[in-house]
Design goal:
binds 2-acetamido-2-deoxy-beta-D-glucopyranose; Immunoglobulin-like; mainly beta; 41% strand
Length: 599
């Protein structure tokens, strides 16, 4: 800085010295030339000998010399030819910058006598500079959706040349989004602004590359270019989108926890946070939340609870996706549950007659039941059967309703009770079966008469027997039960001789014991027959008969036996008729028995 100032003040001194010189010489005129810049060194600027009408031969003798006012020696004097020639190429822009008029000034000094000539060469501009931008590339960050006509001023290009050789115009490579508006400043210099013509869409084109060209007005014209890179900034102008509006999937019931059901997928065309999406359940019932879970980041839906087809065969699940800007969309996941054969058929008894009379006719309904299976399809289709060694059959009335009916005549005396096994099977894989046992009892019907253990009985008796003597027992059995099997014995009416049986013989109605009531005499009657009947307690009662033949055997006479009253009240001896008799060997019983048989 100090050096510059010193320089300038010396120049001023020199100048004032010349001015004094000019004044003292009385003839100090400025001789003007003009030439374009950029002439090669050695080029002739002017011939001063000729122009100043000086003798070339004397120039050296007079110590002719050139004194430049500028620090740089652009020109020099050839003393032999008197020509001022270019020593160093002159750049107008170097010498004068942006000044409109540019002069190279120097003096020619001669001695003996001292003469001073002031010379001025106007340096004309040549279009030797191209417009130039400060950078090769300018970057603009412009948000999408900015309104059209938005403007972006551009940096000016520089061209050191002046006037028409300076920058005259700007242009931009053709594109659909931007135009260029070229404007002039007060001083006439030009500048340009980018004008948005069509809205930007980052999702369509995230970056634009334009070429900006600045041109000067020289001949030939020179241009300079720079790239304009437009980075389009994202705006949350896109909703997240599911790849499908409905996802339909099948899921086996009883699928274990964490089984992948499906994966929903959404995308968002925006960028960064605007494209960060998370998934969540939309409006779904609580039950769905207990059965399924959703990964908010991956969109994977997995099994959480126990999936039961019998509970629900289908679920419709609304899924929401949200981007970082709060935009949401929805999709639906339809989960169809596939049935698994996990339920056995169930037998439900509607009515049961657990006891039926043994004489029930075939087709009598014993039980009514239904068979159901909670599964569906083949898994829920049932078959029903009973074991085949029983006199019962199944009749299907309505679908899945059955009647258990008797098939053959029944006999309680042979089989008093049946355990009927109902087997219900479904057609799933594997087959599931359930079994139900129905117990059916047969109630007794009086269909069996009492039967004597012998078809006829013979009972022996010694004559002169004591009255009330037990001579034998008849026995009849009845296959029925209870009252129907309760046998009572009786003797059919008849006579022994003139007397009725009842006066001589007695049968205990309950146990069939046969008593002789009177003492009998062999000499009068050797045998007789009584028909006994066994009847049961049925209604009506059934009975059968047998013959009891009483044979009287001979014996030495004995004194007649006197029957004392018996203590035993249950004895049929109550029926005995006490009879007083002498203990006389010769006395004879006057009873005569005649059989008064029914046959
Ligand atoms: C039937 O089943 C019952 C109970 O299990 C049993 O007590 C009875 O003896 C069975 N009857 C037949 C005839 O199998
Ligand atoms: C029949 O029953 C009577 C009385 O119980 C008995 O004394 C007799 O021996 C029986 N007869 C036969 C053939 O079993
Ligand atoms: C009464 O008679 C029955 C049979 O008829 C017999 O078992 C019982 O011992 C007798 N009792 C007396 C006290 O004689």
């Amino acid at each position: 800085m100090a050096g510059g100032m010193e320089n300038r003040s010396r120049k001023r001194q020199v100048l004032s010295f010349f001015l004094c010189l000019c004044v003292s010489l009385g003839a100090c005129e400025t001789i003007r030339y003009s030439m374009p810049e950029e002439k090669k060194s050695g080029s002739l600027v002017a011939n001063i000998a000729k122009d100043l009408k000086l003798d070339v031969g004397k120039l050296s003798g007079r110590s002719a010399r050139l004194i430049s006012e500028s620090s740089k020696q652009y020109v020099e004097l050839n003393a032999r030819s008197g020509g001022v020639i270019i020593k160093e190429k002159i750049d107008r822009e170097d010498l004068c910058g942006q000044r409109d008029l540019c002069f190279l000034q120097f003096e020619i000094v001669l001695e003996n006598p001292l003469q001073l000539y002031r010379m001025e060469v106007q340096i004309d501009d040549v279009n030797d500079n191209s417009p130039k931008f400060s950078k090769n590339e300018f970057v603009f960050k412009i948000p999408e959706l900015l309104p059209v006509n938005s403007r972006f001023p551009l940096e000016r290009a520089q061209d050191p040349d002046i006037s028409t050789n300076g920058i005259q115009s700007y242009a931009i490579s053709s594109n659909e989004h931007f135009s260029l508006d070229v404007l002039s400043q007060q001083d006439g210099s030009k500048y340009a602004e980018l004008v948005l013509e069509k809205q930007l869409d980052r999702e369509e084109q995230a970056q634009l590359m334009l070429i900006l060209t600045a041109a000067d007005g020289g001949l030939p014209q020179r241009t300079g270019t720079a790239r304009i890179r437009v980075n389009v900034l994202d705006n949350n102008d896109n909703f997240p989108q599911f790849s499908q509006s409905v996802y339909k999937v099948q899921l086996m019931e009883n699928s274990p926890r964490d089984t992948l059901v499906t994966k929903v997928e959404a995308s968002d065309l925006d960028q960064g946070l605007n494209a960060e999406i998370t998934y969540s359940f939309g409006q779904v019932p609580d039950k769905v939340l207990k059965l399924f879970q959703l990964n908010p980041f991956t969109g994977e839906i997995t099994v959480l609870g126990i999936i039961d087809f019998e509970d629900a065969a289908m679920y419709e699940i609304e899924i929401q996706v949200m981007d970082g800007g709060g935009f949401t969309s929805h999709c639906k996941v339809v989960v169809e549950i596939e049935d698994m054969n996990d339920n056995a058929p169930e037998v439900t008894l509607t009515s049961l007659t657990s006891t039926i009379p043994e004489d029930s006719s075939p087709e009598t309904v014993v039980a009514l039941f239904s068979v159901s299976d909670r599964d569906s399809g083949d898994n829920g289709r049932t078959l029903c059967s009973i074991q085949d060694n029983v006199p019962f059959a199944l009749k299907s009335t309505l679908k899945n309703y059955y009647e258990l009916v008797t098939q053959k005549p029944l006999d309680r005396e042979k089989v008093p009770e049946y355990n009927i096994t109902i087997i219900a099977t479904d057609r799933g894989t594997p087959r599931l079966t359930s079994v139900r046992v129905i117990q059916v009892q047969l109630s007794d019907i009086n269909d069996n008469p009492p039967v004597f253990n012998e078809s006829s009985y013979v009972m022996y008796l010694k004559e002169n027997n004591p009255p009330g003597l037990l001579i034998g027992t008849v026995r009849a059995a009845d296959l029925d039960t209870e009252q129907n099997a309760k046998v009572t014995y009786s003797a059919l009416p008849g006579n022994i001789g003139d007397l009725p049986f009842s006066s001589s013989i007695s049968i205990n109605s309950e146990n069939g014991q046969v008593y002789v009531l009177q003492s009998l005499d062999y000499e009068q009657r050797r045998d007789f027959q009584v028909t006994v009947r066994a009847a049961d307690g049925g209604s009506p009662p059934l009975s059968s008969e047998a013959i009891v033949r009483v044979v009287i055997t001979d014996e030495n006479d004995n004194a007649p036996f006197i029957l004392y009253p018996l203590q035993n009240s249950s004895s049929p001896a109550n029926d005995l008729v006490p009879r007083s008799a002498e203990a006389d060997k010769t006395s004879k019983c006057s009873l005569s028995f005649t059989r008064n048989s029914t046959d």
